[in-house]
Every structure is written in C-alpha cells, then in structure tokens.
Amino acid sequence: MMGSEVVFRLGTHLNEDVGLYRYGVKVPGPWERGRPKGATKKGTKQDGPSRRQNPPEFRFVNVSKQARDIDGTSRALIRRHVKLKRNLQEVHRDVSLPHQLDLRSQEATHIDEEAENIEDVSLRVLPQINLAQIQGVDPFNRSPIKLEPYMHDLLLYYSTTAWRQFYSIERLAGWNPVVEVWLPLAFKDPALIHTLIACSDSYVSGAMTATYGLRHLYAAISIVNDRLATQRDLHASGTLTTIATIALLEKVAGRDENWRIHMRGLRKLVDLRGGIECLCVEPLVLHKIYRADLYGSLDAIQPPFFNKPCPSLPGLGLEARFASEGLNAIHDAIHLDETLRSCVHQLEEAMRLWTETATPKHAARTRYLLTNVQYTLTAANFRQTSGYEGIWEAQLLEFCRIALILYSLSILDEHATSSTFGQQIGRTFRHVLTDLACSPADDNATLSASTTWRLPLPTDFHLWAIFLVARVARNTFYDTGDDTKEWLLASFTELASPEHGHIQDWLDLQGRLRRFLWVSSIHDPTSQWLWSEVERRRRDALVARLAAPGMRGVDS
Predict the structure, then answer these.
(1) What Pfam families does the database record attribute to this sequence (predicted)?
(2) 23 assigned to some structural domain
(3) Distance between CA atoms of 142 and 237, rounded to whole angstroms?
(4) Does any domain span residue 276?
(5) Run of H or E residues at 6
C-alpha cells in the first residue's frame, strides 16, 4: 500500500491550502509521436501564403481547332499547372480577410479616429485592403507593357470588331491581319502595342476626342524617340510599323504638319534599310507604310513621299474599251489620257475581283490594284503639266483625275468616323468644279443658279462625281463656318433638278449612276441616303415658295 503524509505549517493562515504529498512511483504519461523537439529547424513565419523561390516556366500549348492531337508532354504540363493553380487558389481561400485587416489595424488607427461618426466598420477598413492580391489581365506577365483592364478591352475590340472597318477587303476573304500579324508582333514591341490601343480608342471615342488614344500615342512617340537616341531597333519591322501608324493617327486627328514630320522620318529609316523595295518580303509592313503615305497625300492631292512602281495590266492595249458604258462616252468626248485609261482598267479589274468569290489571294490582288491606282493618280497633276497648262483640256482631265481618286477612296473607306479626312479633297473638288462649270464672271459663286452653269461633260458624270465626294465627306469633321458639305448637297440637288438632270426617283438616280464605276454593296446605301437629302431639300424649297408673300397674295 502506498503511503501518504499530510504536512502542517506552523502559524499557517486560514486561507492557505494544506499540502498533501504522496509517495509512489512516477509513471510517465503517453509518449509524444513524431520527431523530438528541436530536431528540425523552423524558419520565420511569413504573413500570408508563402511564395515559391523558383517560379515555374510557362510555355504555350496549341489547343486551337487546328490542333487535333496533344502530345503526352503537353498533357502532363497542363495537368501540372492546373493542380498548382488549384492549390494556390485553396491557399488564398484559407487566408481570411479579417486576418489581413487585423495586421494593418495599427496603421489604420488615424483613419478610425477621423471616421468616428461612421457606423459601418467596413467603410473604415476598406481602403486598407491589399489590392495587390487581385490578379491582373496578364497572368503570364509576358506583355511588353503593364496591361490594364481598359487596354485589354480596347485590344479585344480592335481585334474582333474594329478591324473590319480598317481592313474592308480582307474582311470579305475572312482573313484578319490584326490577329494573324499585328497582335503577335505588338506583344514583342511596346511602342506598337501602344499604337494599336490608340487606334482602337480613336475608332471607339472618335479621332478628335480619344483621350486614352492620345495618351498611348504620346507613349509610343516617346519610345520611338528613345530608340532614335540610342540607335536601337531602328530598322525593325515593329519600329517602321509604329511610325507609320503614328502618322496615320496624326492625320486622322487633323494634325497635318505632324503627319509630314513622321513621314519624312519614316522615309529616312526606310532608306537606311535599303529602300522601299527591300520591304517586299514583308508585304503587310509595306502596305502599312503605303497606307500612311496615301492617307495624307490623297486628301491633300499632293505627290506622295514614296515612289511605288505601278505597272499597267498586261494584255490590255491603250485603245481597249472600258466595261463602263458611261466612261466610254467620256473617253469619246474628251479623249482620256493614257494614265487615266490605265487607272480605269485597273479599277474595273479590282471591281471584278471584288464581286467574285472572295479569297485571300483575291483580297491581296484587289489591294495591290487599288494601291497602284492611288499612287498613279496622286503623282499625276494635269494642271501643273507643261503640256496641259492653261488649256481647257487640262481642267477636264484634272476633274476626271479627282473623280477617280474619290472612287478609289469610296472603295477603301477605311478611316475612323468623325475624322478630318476628306476636308482638303472636298475643298479641292469644289474649286475645280466651280472653275469647270461656272462662267468666268461667277467664279466665287455657288452652283445654285442654273443660268451660270456650263457643263462640258454629261450631267450624269457630274452627278456621279459629286456623289463620290459626298460619300467621302459624309462622316468628315468640318470646322465651324466651313460650308463644303452643305455646298456639295446643294449642288447635287441642283443637278438633279428638272432644269438639268431631271431625276424622277431613287431608282432613276441609281440607274444613271450605275453607268459608271459602281459596287452595289458599297454605293447603294449612300445613294439612298443622298436621294433622301434631295427629297428633303425639295420639300423645304416648296414650303419656302408657298410661304413667300407673293404666293400668299395669289392664294387669297
């Protein structure tokens, strides 16, 4: 039997416990399982989920519709990353939000003191949430710039919707150059990705009011200037494409002098690379440079910065007849120049390819023909040619040249809405038509008075030409006080009046315009809009005549 002993202390207080000591064998409790304490070194605890020292290396796996089979290595890679991602999400889910807020409670003391009157505690601690835990739109961190959500939205819109406006010919063939070429190149070049975002915003917000577009335009210019200063990547395709796109954006916004500055710099860089002919191996880069060059040259009716060889179509003689009945009549009347005849044949070939079954080959051929025509027409100027200067024939050929330029622009209607493109060519057309159709005494008058008109060409041809310039200038942004658009509509209404064209209805107008170069899918909607303007003006004129004082006296 195990004994025990009770010990009393002398002079103990009543509140003290009595000590009880037992004598017996000490038996240890259950043994603790696992490694003994101190056997493993423990690191310092970290706040939040621990980070891996060596981040995994990512690589892209082709899972598109074209990839029918995925190899075993790719399958293992996908499974591994899916499991790592799931484990990381579980770790983030285990970390509760109140714990993170408590870590910052000391830093938020002054905020709580200033917000004593706020009853909701969440309003006081919400500004202290760690926003870095929110993942961005670039999970692989492979973008040349830090992508924000609005940038992602603009790039997505540009690559899925806006590209149809800027590549109208390739759209018919079902080929998207933005997705196939420009986006892969832009994700290797920060300046180019800035310009693509600027292009998208200029299309969405308008060329004159694109705030984000202007910000990214300046960012691209800054990167290009840094490359020029350091002599780095000057001849790269991304740099040339970026400068060409910058020039386009400047011209669309109406900054013509900036467009000229960028085009002069682009021409120097192209010359350093070996000339424009050396870019034939990169047709899309070459096309981007040509588009930037023509975009300003066509509007200003001035010679382009680059010289493009424009061979004529093989198999067509100089005396070959046109497919257009109306243009054959014009040629019989004034004998079109060899340059104009070649351009008409190429435009008709482009129309034929346009109406056929669209393929990427047809799209490239159509783009090539239209580019040749535009370069040929901008380089020719009959009023400055010594053989035609001061002759009545020069004015007729110049009017035909501008009409063909307008037709090519109506086919390639690839500029953003609410832009300044079309201002200068509209004014030039007005000046040439006034010199051609008005008497010398009425050079500064409008074409509203039929007594001042002299039409050396058929009325239908004048209607076709004014229709083309009205289509180009329809969405053009004109300065306050510029009445060019109003003048064009008034002139078309006057030509369609019984005194001149005697147009009965829209079908009559459409039948007359189709005698010349015409693409129904492009020009029919504009002709219907223009005829509605004619009818509205006729009604307004009739109401004004009925409301005149003399007319009221007759009625009474």
Answers:
(1) Fungal_trans_2 (PF11951)
(2) no
(3) 20
(4) yes
(5) strand 4-7
